[in-house]
Amino acid sequence: MPRRTWELCLLLLLELGLGSQEALPPPCESQIYCYGELLHQVQMAKLYQDDKHFVDMPLSTDPDTVLQSFSELSEAHNHSIPTQQLQAFVAEHFQDVGQELQSWTPVDWKDSPQFLQKISDAKLRAWAGQLHELWKKLGKKMKPEVLSHPERFSLIYSDHPFIVPGGRFLEFYYCYGHVPNGGRVYYLQRSQPPLLTLMMDRYLNYTNDTTFLQENIETLALELDFWTKNRSVSVSLGGKSYVLNRYYVPYGGPRPESYSKDAELADTLPEGDREALWAELKAGAESGWDFSSRWLIGGSNPNLLSSIRTSKLVPVDLNAFLCQAEELMSNFYARLGNDSQARKYRTLREQRLDTLSAVLWDEENGAWFDYDLENEKKNQEFYPSNLTPLWAGCFSDPGVADKALKYLEDSHILTYQYGIPTSLQQTGQQWDFPNAWAPLQDVVIRGLAKSSSLRAQEVAFQLAQNWIRTNFDVYSQTSAMYEKYDISNGGQPGGGGEYEVQEGFGWTNGVVLMLLDRYGDRLTSGAQLAFLEPRCLVAALLLNFLVSLLPW
């Protein structure tokens, strides 16, 4: 029987991950894709609008031949090759982006999945069908030459097919531990937020495949060990020491996929500060929030990217992900009959719950906040990540959902009609205002929806309605889904950051389809409506109840 898409995706991550149990992942050794004069000259010449384009191009021959030819060309031009000759060199020795991939249709893809029939609005139902078709467009598998000649590619080989996000992102994403944060050799030094354990939980809920869990649970444990060994930090508060986790990449050098931008940014700093800047940029990329005012806490101008200090903050979302993973690991081991390991992870979760409460929770504001290690205080700016523990179920106060609602109301977040903003700061970075991102909508919507509070559940639905209409309206105008949306003046494709907004787009499609599956009987494609704030919800719910009692 063919393996389901979920199982293939998990196998890809599990088999590539943590093959080595070294304390840190090895640095990338490619003198073409990761460091060296060839990379420097090509990227600084800006042959392509996007630096990622070059480092995704396969070689036409073996690296030693390419490096030798480049060395001769460079010496002939005193290590400053004119742009025209450099373009000719790249054309001779490299292939176009995407040549190493071929299309793949998931074997469990169906023409008319059942959830479509749950969507009442005919326009939304037709749209959902078109989004469902996109999985075939985003499905990829690697050509055999990536296995037979791995040295010619930045792409890391996998025998398993996968779903790409789309646009410039033509590789698998989300990996862990010693697996890069994306499937290219130049990502080897970075992880991404640890969500593999949650993926396993979703897979088990669907398949009940305990054998698969048994075969792979030690790899899940290694992922959490990686964060414990390499990304832990101690916080002293009130005479007590707490251990939490942070994003941290102990390697300098410009990011190959953003080489010219990192090099030019470093030129604004004293030479002795440049390696630290590059390490902080990589830590920001590891967080997934590349880049945001969340990390811009240093320097004389906090709006400048050169102020980035990612590793100096203890992030709410990262620690909520780990708290959730510890609970799931305890449940997994209990399911497999390993009581000692179940107790171990249960204890770790209890410790983290206490630590989240002591260090990151703010009772007055009703939310959790990133902790600034240098200034020894919480960063009380608004970010949707401040509510990640609600989404992850990592809290003990049963009234936390209502406190979170008040926090959203006090921050005026519920006045935004087109989606939840990523922040309230306008820095020009893509993970700031006015952009809104699908995963962050999911964090807030599902966090509130899981609550027993009727007010929270209704706000969750209204937020879902706002996001669906924004995505639907933009799709109706452009026939495309985007990685992010500008919500400042009606929904439109987002902007800012280091590259043009990308079409595709994996997580945007996924969140929309999830919301249509959950609320399909209520969601509408009609004109955007003003949002109903929580203080009005009680009256609205009561009115709905009374109307339902009337005889007509």
Largest sheet: spatial strand order? 1-2-3
Structural class: mainly alpha
Total strand count, please?
Answer: 13
Sheet with the most strands? 3 strands, antiparallel
Q: What percent of residues are in strands?
A: 5-15%
Basic shape: globular
Question: What is the share of helical residues?
Answer: 40-55%
- The radius of gyration over CA amounts to 24 Å
Average pLDDT over all residues? 91
Task: Provide a brief overview of the structure.
This protein is mainly alpha-helical and 552 residues long. It is built from 19 helices and 13 strands.
Characterise the protein shown here:
With 552 residues, this protein is mainly α. Among the domains are: 57 residues, no CATH class; 155 residues, no CATH class. Helices cover 46% and strands 7% of the residues. It is built from 19 helices and 13 strands. Strands 1-2-3 form a 3-stranded antiparallel beta sheet. β9 and β10 form a beta hairpin. The protein is globular, with a radius of gyration of 24 Å.
Could you give the topology of this structure?
Elements: H1 5-16, H2 37-45, H3 51-55, H4 63-76, H5 83-93, E1 101-103, H6 122-138, E2 139-142, H7 144-148, E3 162-163, H8 196-207, H9 210-230, E4 232-237, E5 240-245, H10 259-266, H11 274-287, E6 313-314, H12 316-335, H13 339-360, E7 361-362, E8 367-368, E9 371-372, E10 377-378, H14 388-392, H15 400-410, E11 435-437, H16 438-449, H17 454-478, E12 484-486, E13 492-493, H18 506-519, H19 534-549
Antiparallel strand pairs: 1-2, 2-3, 4-5, 6-9, 7-8, 9-10, 11-12, 12-13
Helix pairs in contact: 1-8, 6-18, 8-9, 8-12, 9-12, 12-13, 16-17, 16-18, 17-18, 17-19
